[in-house]
């Protein structure tokens, strides 16, 4: 198993509904008159080859839950369909999308979380209207003074639906999907001509959908600023993503590279999530420490914490560099990358700071210094293991890591470049979209 610890196999079906009646000391169902300090919603689009990991992560949330937390943890789970090759081979398997209120039970052989609401599978979890509906209902059913949001699924940064193909890497044999009952290995796919393989955020096998980042930003409520948004998904620590979400959250926690299917160590990060002021640095540090403590290919992680209210200064410094003009050598594409060539993600996610230094470092030292200062104030925590997927095909050596990635305009990627200029606001506000004619 890929978790490096024994996790119980859980039953999400009729047991889930029956537990409330069996437990003696359940709290009443949350309501508008029972406000806590913080509610955290985990939005799980698990209608794909990651479903078994969703079950495991829910188990970890239950194991880490404590009555001392002044808050609630709610999970929107959209499971894989029974007919999917990734569905568990269990007669009691429940494929209904549902809201779960995470509760702890000392018994370790069942899920103890309570169903707050059920939904119909006809709704698409990657539709922004669905996400907004779920968020609104969580705020009604589990009201709080503040909110956090975890977005759990596949991911590929800002890349848009028009460029998408099924992503192969997040459930590769390395991640032990084959160890799961009924699981099949993902099929090999052919990448688009310009080398882009994408999901944006989320992947629903039942609906064939994905959610583009600008649509995601519009799905989030404008009247509420989340204390944090955590992406348990690949490649979401992009400057383009952060810019789109800058007015929706105080902090963004995400990885510039692939995130192993095991995801964040929820048992360890719930405490920091429910501090009076969410300890966003500790959430990221627990993630890094967990993977840095592994060995071989599993010692693989990058993570950054972005303070979103400081992003305008980063954009201004970037624009100043772009307006100063490119040096004779043009854009440097020689810097640190976070996308594996084996997955057709190379030449897509570059280290933002390394790009700036390599492009302008010898011709505009003052401008680079201003940019460095702005970035240091915006990215308040960053960490990376020495390698990504060491000893595996396309392993990446991490020589530098600023906590956030960027796309670099390329004439050889006309579809991607057009989408970057037309759909990605960062390309305009930073001036990066105009670096090429």
Could you explain how this protein is built, in words?
- The protein has 437 residues and is of the alpha/beta class.
- Helix content is 28%, strand content 16%.
- The chain contains 12 helices and 15 strands.
- The strands form 4 sheets. A 9-stranded mixed beta sheet has the order 4-3-2-1-5-8-9-10-12, sandwiched between helices. Strands 6-7 form a two-stranded antiparallel sheet.
- Helix 6 (266-273) packs antiparallel against helix 7 (280-292) and helix 8 (311-323) runs antiparallel to helix 10.
- The N and C termini lie far apart (50 Å).
- 50% of the residues are buried.
- The model is unreliable at 1-27 and 164-198 (pLDDT under 50).
Intertermini distance: 50 Å
The helix-and-strand class reads: alpha/beta
Main pleated-sheet profile: 9 strands, mixed
Using the alpha-carbon principal axes, give the shape: globular
Radius of gyration: 21 Å
Number of distinct helices: 12
Average per-residue pLDDT, rounded, comes to: 84
Q: Tell me the series of helices and strands, N- to C-terminal.
A: HEHEEEHEEEHEHEHHEHEHHEEEEHH
Got a strand count? 15
**Beta-strand content:** 15-25%
Name the strands of the widest sheet in spatial order.
4-3-2-1-5-8-9-10-12
Enumerate the spans where pLDDT stays under 50 for 5 or more consecutive residues. 1-27, 164-198
Fraction of residues in H or I helices: 25-40%
């Amino acid at each position: 198993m890929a978790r490096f610890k024994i996790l119980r196999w859980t039953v999400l079906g009729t047991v889930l509904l029956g537990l409330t009646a069996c437990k003696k000391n359940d709290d009443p169902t949350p309501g508008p008159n029972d406000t806590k300090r913080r509610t955290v919603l985990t939005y799980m689009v698990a209608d794909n080859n990651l479903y078994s990991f969703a079950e495991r992560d829910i188990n970890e949330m239950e194991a880490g839950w404590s009555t001392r937390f002044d808050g609630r943890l709610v999970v929107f789970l959209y499971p894989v369909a029974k007919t999917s090759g990734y569905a568990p081979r269990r007669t009691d398997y429940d494929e209904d999308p549902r809201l779960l209120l995470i509760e702890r039970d000392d018994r370790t052989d069942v899920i103890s979380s309570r169903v707050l609401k059920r939904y119909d599978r006809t709704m698409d979890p990657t539709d922004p209207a669905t996400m907004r509906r779920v968020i609104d209902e969580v705020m009604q059913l589990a009201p709080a003074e503040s909110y956090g949001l975890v977005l759990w699924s596949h991911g590929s940064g800002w890349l848009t639906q028009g460029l998408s193909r099924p992503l192969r890497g997040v459930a590769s044999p390395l991640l032990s999907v084959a160890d799961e009952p009924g699981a099949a290995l993902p099929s090999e796919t052919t990448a688009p001509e310009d080398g882009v393989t994408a999901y944006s955020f989320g992947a629903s096998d039942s609906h064939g959908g994905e959610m583009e980042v600008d649509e995601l930003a519009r799905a989030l409520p404008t009247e509420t600023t989340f204390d944090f948004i955590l992406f348990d998904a690949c490649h979401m620590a992009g400057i383009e993503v952060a810019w789109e979400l800058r007015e929706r959250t105080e902090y963004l926690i995400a990885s510039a590279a692939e995130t192993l299917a095991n995801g964040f160590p929820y048992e360890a990060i719930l405490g920091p999530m429910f501090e009076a002021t969410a300890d966003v640095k500790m959430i990221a540090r627990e993630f890094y420490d967990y993977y840095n403590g592994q060995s071989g290919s599993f010692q693989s992680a990058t993570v950054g914490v972005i303070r979103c209210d400081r992003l305008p200064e980063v954009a201004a410094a970037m624009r100043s560099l772009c307006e100063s003009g490119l040096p004779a050598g043009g854009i440097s594409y020689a810097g640190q990358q976070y996308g594996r060539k084996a997955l057709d993600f190379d030449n897509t996610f570059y280290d933002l700071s390394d790009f700036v230094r390599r492009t302008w470092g010898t011709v505009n030292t003052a401008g680079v210094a201003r940019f460095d200062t702005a970035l240091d104030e915006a990215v308040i925590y960053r960490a990376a293991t020495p390698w990504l997927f060491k000893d595996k095909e396309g392993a990446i050596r991490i020589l530098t890591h600023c906590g956030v990635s960027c796309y670099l305009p390329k004439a050889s990627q006309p579809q991607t470049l057009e989408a970057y200029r037309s759909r990605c606001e960062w390309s305009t506000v930073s001036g990066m979209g105009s670096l090429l004619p």
